[in-house]
Amino acid sequence: MRSDLQHLLITPAEMTAIDRAAAQSGIDSFTLMRNAGLAVTAAALRHFPDARRFVVLCGPGNNGGDGYIAARGLAESGADVAVFVLGDPARLQGDAARAWSDWSGPAAPISAFEPQAGDVVIDALFGAGLSRDLPDDVVHLIERVNASGVPVVAIDLPSGIDGRTGEIRGAAFATRHTVTFMAPKPGHWLLPGRSLCGTLKVFDIGIPARIVSAGAGSLRLNAPFLWAGWGGDLAASTHKFKRGHLVVFSGDRQATGAARLSAAAGLAAGAGLVTVATGKAALGINASHLTAVMVKEIDGSRELTKWLQDQRLGSFVLGPGFGIGKKARDFALALCDRSLVLDADGITSFQTNPGELFAALAKGGGQMVMTPHDGEFARLFPEIAGDDGLSKIEKAQAAARASHAVIVYKGADTVVAAPDGRAVVNNNAPPWLATAGSGDVLAGIVGAHLAKGMPAFEAAIAAVWRHGAAGAKAGPGLTAETLIGAIPPIS
């Protein structure tokens, strides 16, 4: 995959338009199909040189056309090849019909296929454009193949995965390898599709980069180039306030640890100074556990309003262990003209009247980053969360538009979306980040970025990426404390 395209994330509809634009520019579409099919041939031979038989399952569209070309390439290489078809190949049209006519070997209906030891299956039934449930005969075929354990190489996307949402449409192949073209699709990286793709390889089949870039939307895979220039090299004259002052609000005396984790993470992530703002009841507990992080007694809205006159306070984290209720709402509403990370209890506190928060943020014009997991997202955005027709990306985008905030929709396939429609999918996070306190650490990193002046979207995507990189560095036995120590420098 070309470096200038490697971070694009292209929806199936966008890819269809890109294919059309390539053809309109004078590029022979069958040449592109041939390049795709031969890329699959090469991948299959490279990964499975000892296969006893390659079984190519060809569908009723262009994905099937790729399969016929792959089958011919495998046969010409000397491999034993068997082709099984869905539907009547005589009804194929365009490039797929030409690919079928170039296949000189026999073909049997998919109902005749029974997996055998030594088989390698090439899945060319349906590509990333699938948006409907599979027919029963295909579901049964997929179940037989998955149960057999024979390896599967998917063309474009494992059949049964919706390329837009990553959802399974009845059943889907569990593949060892997936070969796609020009750029990955959302279904490659959104769950559950991500878990079924195996290793993903993106091949350049000859569509000019200018056409691909022009047809791509605002989706990207998260990577450091997206926040390049916001890392902030330290000048000789830099002092702690120039690096930013982060404030983390603590909960009551029985729930102070989460705030301290966020504060420690913010300090490690680059904030020049960090203060834990705490009520009087928890003041002693927090003071006894903190050293480089300062402590400030803030019991209510009056004290907070007075303190906010200090414009050196760069950003705020509200929610980790704070408690659900009126105090959280009052504090959040008072900060809607500042830079605020709203997490955990701060989010849930608005579940009965989220519009109050959204209106205040629209009026205040501050920079807010909200970091909900699935449950918190459903509490704050019930209608969006309940729309099964939307992908996780589309849900995050809709929530960002509705709330006027950057949304970090957490999970193994974290999506970050901005109110202007920009969105990224993060793919560097290891599964062992799913541990107590991990989200508190993430909130602190976002807060540190906001404190140093990064825009909300860049602050959020950089934090999510650094959080994932820290998890990979800390390893499977990480705790929230060791995760903080593994936060890498911002690039």
SSE order and pairing:
Blueprint: H1 12-24, H2 29-47, E1 53-58, H3 62-76, E2 81-85, H4 94-102, E3 107-109, E4 119-124, H5 136-148, E5 152-155, E6 177-181, H6 186-189, E7 199-203, H7 209-215, E8 219-221, H8 240-243, E9 245-249, H9 257-268, E10 273-278, H10 280-289, E11 294-297, H11 301-307, E12 313-318, H12 326-334, E13 339-342, H13 345-348, H14 354-364, E14 367-370, H15 374-380, H16 382-385, H17 392-403, E15 406-409, E16 415-417, E17 423-425, H18 438-451, H19 456-474, H20 480-485
Parallel strand pairs: 1-2, 1-4, 2-3, 4-5, 5-6, 6-7, 8-17, 9-10, 9-12, 10-11, 12-13, 13-14, 14-15
Antiparallel strand pairs: 15-16, 16-17
Helix pairs in contact: 1-7, 2-3, 2-4, 3-4, 9-18, 18-19
Description:
The protein has 491 residues and is an alpha/beta fold. It folds into 2 domains: 12-217, 3-Layer(aba) Sandwich (Rossmann fold); 224-485, UDP-N-acetylmuramoyl-L-alanine:D-glutamate ligase. The chain is built from 20 helices and 17 strands. It has helices at residues 12-24, 29-47, 62-76, 94-102, 136-148, 186-189, 209-215, 240-243, 257-268, 280-289, 301-307, 326-334, 345-348, 354-364, 374-380, 382-385, 392-403, 438-451, 456-474, 480-485, and strands spanning 53-58, 81-85, 107-109, 119-124, 152-155, 177-181, 199-203, 219-221, 245-249, 273-278, 294-297, 313-318, 339-342, 367-370, 406-409, 415-417, 423-425. The strands form 2 sheets. A 10-stranded mixed beta sheet has the order 8-17-16-15-14-13-12-9-10-11, sandwiched between helices. Strands 3-2-1-4-5-6-7 form a 7-stranded parallel beta sheet, covered by helices on one side. Helix 1 (12-24) packs across helix 7 (209-215) and helix 3 (62-76) runs parallel beside helix 4 (94-102).
